[in-house]
């Protein structure tokens, strides 16, 4: 498979500010604004019936029915919560200004503070298999039991951090932890028990978040002249660029999620017009379809069987899948 270059008429322009954006433009499906004027929302998690998100500045974990009821401050008193994860009815998140991983059960009453599941220096990215936390800090990849216990190295190779590196994406799938770097430019995997990482792709460019499912591994690279979507099998064989778009704004972090049929990703182009969300089917050589454009800078994205959800500035939005 070779690079699938999009036609010029299909390209999206972007460049936006977090506080003022042009009116949203979408494809054929109506865009649904679930909530506006949130307090710097940062990350999303979905259950079968609810949407949950972190209000980073407000120090809250919010929850709302997908039917569109009033949101409820589910957990309060957190310190810059981010990277929200739901696993088996339990929430976990990074308290980036409190050096801890917070937790709460979905069955807990609303308005609680939530205990610290783990004290760890500078947590930034989080994944879990329900037994172990996998945590990325600005310098290291670490692991620790969910039930409490010592923090240990996920990466045991002392030379791994020898080059400039900062993990921006982390995901778990079937006994392996996958990570992507914004500076080092590597996509890699390492066993959940810890070990020496296997590099899936060594760059080039700065990578955004990473997604993994039964079909493969997915990430975006921000390169000198383009932004590319990459697909690899889970062993790193056959890493191929399946989409190429324009440059994104400085410090942009492209997001990617998947379902059984497609790859969904965000881009914040530097040419103007607002951020865009696209859908690229896993099979075939179709052009990546624009689901929504004209957005403020995308904070996070998530997908369920019927909708794509995202954070645009201070709003939580969704759109029906085609």
Task: Briefly say what this structure is.
With 322 residues, the protein is mainly β.
Features:
Neuraminidase, single chain, 0% helix, mainly beta, disordered N terminus, five-stranded antiparallel beta sheet, four-stranded antiparallel beta sheet, 322 residues
SSE topology sketch:
Blueprint: E1 25-26, E2 31-35, E3 41-46, E4 50-55, E5 60-65, E6 72-75, E7 81-87, E8 90-95, E9 100-105, E10 116-119, E11 125-128, E12 132-136, E13 141-145, E14 152-153, E15 167-173, E16 176-181, E17 187-191, E18 198-201, E19 206-213, E20 216-222, E21 227-232, E22 240-245, E23 256-258, E24 262-267, E25 275-281, E26 289-295, E27 298-303, E28 307-312, E29 315-320
Antiparallel strand pairs: 1-26, 2-29, 3-4, 4-5, 5-6, 7-8, 8-9, 9-10, 11-12, 12-13, 13-14, 15-16, 16-17, 17-18, 19-20, 20-21, 21-22, 23-24, 24-25, 25-26, 27-28, 28-29
What does this structure look like?
The chain is an all-beta fold. It has one domain (8-320): TolB, C-terminal domain (Neuraminidase). The protein is 0% helix and 49% strand. It has strands spanning 25-26, 31-35, 41-46, 50-55, 60-65, 72-75, 81-87, 90-95, 100-105, 116-119, 125-128, 132-136, 141-145, 152-153, 167-173, 176-181, 187-191, 198-201, 206-213, 216-222, 227-232, 240-245, 256-258, 262-267, 275-281, 289-295, 298-303, 307-312, 315-320. It has a 5-stranded antiparallel β-sheet with strand order 1-26-25-24-23, with no helix packed on it. Strands 2-29-28-27 form a 4-stranded antiparallel β-sheet, with no helix packed on it. It is globular and about 50 Å long. The model is unreliable at 1-28 (pLDDT under 50).
């Amino acid at each position: 498979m070779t690079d699938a270059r999009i036609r010029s008429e299909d390209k999206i322009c972007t460049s936006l500010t977090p506080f003022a954006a042009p009116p949203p433009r979408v494809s054929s499906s109506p865009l649904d604004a679930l909530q506006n004027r949130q307090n710097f929302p940062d990350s999303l998690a979905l259950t079968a019936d609810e949407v949950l998100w972190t209000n980073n500045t407000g120090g809250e974990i919010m929850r709302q029915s997908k039917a569109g009821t009033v949101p409820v401050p589910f957990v309060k008193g957190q310190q810059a919560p981010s990277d929200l994860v739901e696993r088996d009815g339990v929430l976990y998140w990074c308290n980036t200004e409190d050096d801890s991983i917070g937790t709460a059960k979905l069955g807990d009453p609303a308005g609680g503070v939530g205990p610290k599941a783990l004290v760890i220096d500078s947590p930034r990215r989080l994944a879990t298999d329900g037994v172990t936390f996998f945590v990325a800090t600005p310098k290291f990849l670490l692991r620790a039991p969910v039930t409490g216990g010592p923090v240990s190295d996920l990466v045991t190779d002392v030379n791994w951090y020898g080059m400039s590196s900062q993990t921006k994406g982390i995901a778990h799938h079937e006994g392996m932890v996958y990570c992507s770097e914004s500076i080092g430019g590597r996509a890699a995997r390492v066993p959940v028990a810890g070990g020496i990482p296997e590099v899936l792709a060594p760059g080039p460019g700065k990578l955004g978040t990473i997604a993994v499912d039964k079909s493969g591994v997915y990430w975006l690279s921000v390169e000198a002249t383009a932004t590319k979507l990459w697909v690899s099998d889970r062993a790193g064989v056959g890493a191929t660029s399946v989409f190429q778009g324009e440059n994104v704004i400085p410090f942009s972090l492209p997001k990617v999620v998947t379902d059984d049929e497609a790859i969904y990703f965000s881009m914040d182009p530097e040419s103007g017009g607002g951020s865009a969300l696209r859908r690229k089917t896993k099979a075939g050589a179709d052009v990546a379809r624009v689901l929504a454009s004209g957005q403020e800078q995308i904070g996070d994205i998530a997908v369920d069987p019927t909708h794509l959800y995202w954070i645009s500035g201070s709003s939580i939005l969704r759109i029906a899948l085609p």
